[in-house]
Input
Amino acid sequence: MITNLRGRDLIGDLDFTKEEVETVLEVAWDLKRKRALGEPHPLLRDKTLAMLFFFSSTRTRCSFEAGMAQLGGHAAFIESKTTQIAHGDTPTEIGEILGRYFDGIAIRHCDWGLGNAYINGVAKASRAPVLNMQCDIYHPFQCLADLMTIMEKKGRDLRKKRIVVSWAYASSYLKPMSVPQSLILQMPRFGMDVTLSYPPEFKLMPEIVEQAQAQARKYGTAFDIVHDMKQGFEDADVVYAKSWGPLLTTADPAEGKRIQDQYKDWITDAAKMAVAKPDAIYMHPLPADRDIEVTSEVMDGPQSVVFDQAENRLHAQKAVMALTMW
Ligand code: CP
Output
């Protein structure tokens, strides 16, 4: 078990080695067991986490905040609009100053072309670890919870199991591409074959796809790209279908919405789930556009693991905080 994670940032999915992710999972399961038993685990007593949000959240905010309290510490919820960031506080100043007040800085900044650069700017100046609560490129804590959930449902040896990471239609807004990018980077390291499926205008970042393909080559797994939702679902063990914006095709939200609206049939429904393996699980990080992105029949059906997935955010994040912030 690799244990020297104290003081480390987690910004991109590959920042932790495979062995370090395995350590995170071991600790996460131990903390999940302790919580189930009502066993106190104040590993971060008197420690504090700054949670800086540039974008809304339900699960991420609540699970980090509850997690810090369960570890005996405190999390401060900070919305960027209530700070002096708009009046001139730079990423360096935020890193220098919050890094002196807090034992960790967690940031959500999803703006395309800005978020990841901002988080790295803070990390460069911070003496405390910086944790990425989702940026424009990665959503590493979601991905750790997803990996944990897949192992709970499919076993710890995921070799020869296939995940389809599929685009799905949404009408609400152009969602970040961080979740699919994190999934395609992390899952090959744990032996999963990956099928990435999207309409042509919804490409992921080429450098991320190249890194994911390199991971697949390194770990001897398959990596395929298709442009048909139902084809992508064929024989999948794990169906992970969610929307993201056509951000590499257009930066204009109105044009992006027009492109997106051409693909309303990219909905996860029972007919598409029927071509996956009979014991396939359905995953979504939430929030989903119900009956647009996925039917309620699938979302509330027996193959859906979305609530276990959401719960595991708590345990995975507590594990990373306990390993990095002491
Ligand atoms: N999945 C996820 O990150 O949820 P929130 O946007 O509600 O935090």
About this structure: DSSP finds twelve helices and nine strands in the chain. The beta strands are 48-53, 74-79, 104-109, 130-135, 162-167, 193-197, 223-226, 238-242, 281-283. The two ends are 18 Å apart (CA to CA).
